[in-house]
Amino acid sequence: MIYCTNTNTALFFSSIDEIPSQIWEDLGCKQNIYFHPNFLKSLEKNHPKIIFSYIVLVDKNKNPTAFANIQIVDFYFKSVNNDLGFLKTIGRKLHIFPDKKPLKLLICGNTFVSGEHGVFIKKNKDKKEIIKELAKTILHFSNSTKSLKKNVDAFLLKDFANESLFITDELKGSNYNPFSVEPNMVLNIHKNWQNFDDYLTAMKTKFRIKAKKAIKQSAALRTENVTQENISTQLPEMTALYKKVVANANFNLAEFNLDTYKDLKENLGENYVLKTYWLKDKIVGFISGVINKKSLDAHYVGIDYQLNREHAIYQKMLYDYIEIAITKNLETLNFGRTASEIKSSVGAIPQDLTMYLRHKKSIANRILKLFLQRIEPTPFQQKFPFKKATSTHEKH
What InterPro entries does the annotation carry (predicted)? Predict the structure, then answer.
């Protein structure tokens, strides 16, 4: 646990349980699941290797104005398989990154979810001022103990959408370097879609044929809702499948502990989607997702890649996410950051995301800036599967 002395502008907590209920009420952030103490507690409880801390910014009357979610992780460069590989090589040669040990990364954001889930700012507050204050507070926090001061190598504020950049670009004044990451793929659920057939009808013939073929291929799959009663028996196989997906991923900040699902199901109930896919008596895949306000956010999946092509497991999962979003009368489906092209073929469009990185040492940070400017998301061919009448702006 990290203990940091409170300041005139910030309160520091090393566990969700320490935060008084009055703070949550004053902030009014519980309507957003990602800033609900139950959700944050589920992550904290199941990831003992990560240092979790929480910052509450306060005004001159000591009233809360913002909440920030801090996670300190050991980032292993062996988990980088994509374009960031050049950063790893050059960074080590120039001694920007540690050679033998992992990079100790202080993240403001949610390590396990794509999107703006790291900073909550209370309504009617000056967001630019709060972001500037947060940058100062993070620096104060990282200097608060010998272990953090010595070990933290860099700071990362993650996943801001384009419409937030006029606020978050204030971070440049605190020596943070912006860079683009893989986009979040978003499907807008059309207001006229009452069921999955309506979604198929909205597609151009070529894409509808492709969808029906995948549905036919996956006909042998049986799905089962994972509940608090049956989760323990299914978790070992789900974990094995999740690890296969992680091994294929280009980039992972931290590995998710699937035991977290037990708490998420208990705390979120119907707002946490968890399904397994079976071929006869064997689990061959699973999906998970968070229903947050009017959005379904796809969370982690697991896939048996050896059976994926034959039984169209992954495509079936994408269509199931879509069917859930339509059935629950939601407005958007966030598919997350991987497999952009196949997600675009089911109707998702890219939402750009920006991260801000700062190395603790100023010379290293200036070198880092040059390399981060070279990072671009992997290009992919955007598909447009819908007939003209179902344009993306005709949503709810």
Answer: FemAB-like
Residue type, 88: K
Q: What are the tokens at 154?
A: 């860099």
Take residue 287 and report the two structure tokens written for it. Answer: 């999906």
Instruction: List the one residue out of 157, 185, 161, 184 whose CA is nearest residue 172.
Output: 157
Query: Would you state the pLDDT for residue 94?
Result: 63
Instruction: For residue 310, give both structure tokens.
Output: 């034959």
Q: Which domains does the chain have, with CATH numbers?
A: 10-182+353-372 (3.40.630.30), 186-350 (3.40.630.30)
Amino acid (one-letter) located at 74: D
Which portions of the chain are predicted below pLDDT 50? Answer: 83, 390-396
| pTM for this entry | 0.92
Q: Is 31 exposed, middle or buried (0-12, 13-18, 19+ CB in 10 A)?
A: exposed
What's the pLDDT at 209? Answer: 97
First to last CA, the chain: 45
Task: Look at residue 36 in the predicted model and tell me its pLDDT.
Answer: 96
- Is the Cα dihedral 23, 29, 30, 36 positive or negative? negative
